[in-house]
Write a structure and sequence with these properties.
alpha/beta, globular, Alpha-Beta Plaits, 3-stranded parallel sheet, Fe-only Hydrogenase (Larger Subunit), Chain L, domain 3, 15 strands, 476 residues
């Protein structure tokens, strides 16, 4: 789900600036001027004017400080310095992990079909003939869709011989695999958290950057400045995200103030071992299939939507959860900070008492920028605790989890026939329920919410194909 655009750059720039101000002890004093510094007087506006752009920056700063944006009255009556003070006083991050910039969100029209000027007002008029609701009329020698009658069935677009009718989506709604996001009567998108699986697809799909995850970077820096012992838990997909290697990243994190740096691939090794034993037990007792368990967005989708498949999901914990347990056993009195490519991990972190904070690769890059760290110029440092195996380090790519189980089971002559769901979408939600009824060609179902695997997650920094090359080089 790699997305490279101006809203991405703006978000990263804001987080890096906030981190730099806090490290330099100027956060409270300088943050109110941040929108003006970022959107200068002679800047080319994105919207109607620079003042609107500055207001949007204010909203982004509030989310980057870790707060929700739904209370417009509070936002209008508080300064950014007020939010900064509150962020330094809170005990821990809170639910939900996503929030909306209301004013930016209203920029999209409702999902609909639209007749372009390519329409030739042909004699056949298949659009009118096939419309089940009589929602198309001829106006000014061209077909026109009547919004009040249209039910968005799409038949008109399918039958138009000139391809003159186009589908105009709402990007966030289109990207959501579970229908958890929809516009209300005022044109504002709302997330139904009873349906949401926290995959992060909506936030990366929005071309206005209106959906943001609430950052925990202030919480992490606060603990660093207070002298606490922090452990950085590096997701396996970190390979290939930065110019430096994992050992240089470890050095940089310790320069920032982390006490320890541990691979989450250690937990992936444990996940692979436990899932392998469980797979043997399930096959011996007559189960036809078993699903993997390492992707929190997919597991959340099963709990809320593909409920027939729930009995077949492995009971193994995620690599993050097992790594936190390993750290708890070996490095006492530490603050555990998972660093990865995933929005869903922030939700998982809120529900795991062993995880204190979750940062994305974007936020880690912001820390490096704030501290003026050039990874290519840094010496390598050994990782703390043990190093992971090739099995655990292969987890972040599509087929990686299933291949790990096959590798673990190859000496036991267990027949593993994997089936891959590479990227979770609306069709795959239904497909899992079909698999649950026994209609599956394999016996191990690997599900990755992001197409390509975690290495293509919503918060990665590099193109997945480039990162995969670097990961493969590292694994050799």
């Amino acid at each position: 789900m790699f997305v490279d655009n101006k809203t991405t750059y703006l978000r990263r720039d804001i987080i890096a600036t906030i981190a730099k101000l806090y490290f330099e002890d100027n956060l409270i004093e300088e943050i109110d001027r941040l929108p003006i510094k970022m959107i200068k007087k002679d800047a080319q506006p994105f919207r109607c004017c620079i003042y609107k752009d500055r207001e949007m920056v204010k909203y982004r700063v509030i989310a980057s400080l870790g707060f929700s944006l739904e209370n417009e009255y509070e936002i209008d009556n508080n300064l950014l310095s007020d939010y900064a003070k509150n962020s330094l006083e809170r005990d821990k991050p809170n639910f939900p992990i996503l929030t909306f910039i209301d004013e930016a969100c209203k920029s999209c029209v409702r999902t609909n079909y639209f007749v372009t000027n390519v329409c030739k007002n042909c004699v056949a008029k298949p659009c009118i003939v096939n419309c089940p609701k009589d929602a198309i009329e001829i106006d000014n020698n061209q077909a026109n869709i009547i919004p009040k009658k249209c039910v968005n069935c799409g038949l008109c677009m399918k039958v138009c011989p000139f391809h003159a009718i186009v589908y105009v989506p709402v990007p966030c709604e289109e990207s959501c695999p579970v229908g958890a996001i929809i516009k209300d009567d005022n044109g504002k998108e709302d997330i139904d958290y009873n349906k949401c699986i926290f995959c992060g697809k909506c936030s990366r799909a929005c071309p206005f950057g209106a959906i943001m995850e609430k950052s925990q970077i202030i919480d992490v820096i606060k603990d660093i400045k207070n002298g606490k012992r922090l452990v950085a838990m590096l997701a396996p997909s970190i390979i290939g995200q930065f110019e430096g290697n994992i050992y240089q990243i470890a050095t940089a994190l310790k320069e920032i103030g982390f006490k320890y740096v541990v691979e989450v691939a250690l937990g992936a090794d444990k996940t692979a071992a436990i899932e392998s034993n469980e797979f043997i037990e399930r096959m011996e007792k007559g189960d036809k299939i078993m699903g993997t368990s390492c992707c929190p967005a997919y597991v959340e989708a099963v709990k809320k939507h593909s409920t027939d498949f729930l009995p077949f999901v492995s009971h193994a914990k995620t690599p993050m959860a097992y790594t936190a347990e390993i750290i708890n056993e070996n490095l006492s009195d530490t603050i555990k900070v998972f660093i990865g490519p995933c929005v869903a991990k922030k939700h998982e972190g809120l529900n795991n008492p062993l995880i204190d904070y979750v940062l994305t690769f974007e936020e880690l890059e912001s820390l490096f920028i704030a501290k003026n760290i050039n990874l290519t110029m840094i010496k390598e440092t050994k990782l703390d605790l043990d190093e992971a195996t090739k099995i655990g380090r292969s987890f972040p790519v599509n087929t990686g989890v299933a291949n790990a189980l096959k590798e673990t089971l190859k000496e036991k002559n267990i027949n593993v026939k994997p089936v891959f769901i590479n990227g979770f979408n609306k069709q795959n939600v239904k497909l899992l329920n079909i698999y649950a009824k026994g209609n599956c060609d394999g016996n191990l179902i690997e599900v990755m919410s992001c197409e390509g695997g975690c290495i293509a997650g919503p918060c990665v920094l590099n193109k997945p194909q480039d990162s995969i090359k670097k990961l493969n080089e590292f694994l050799k």
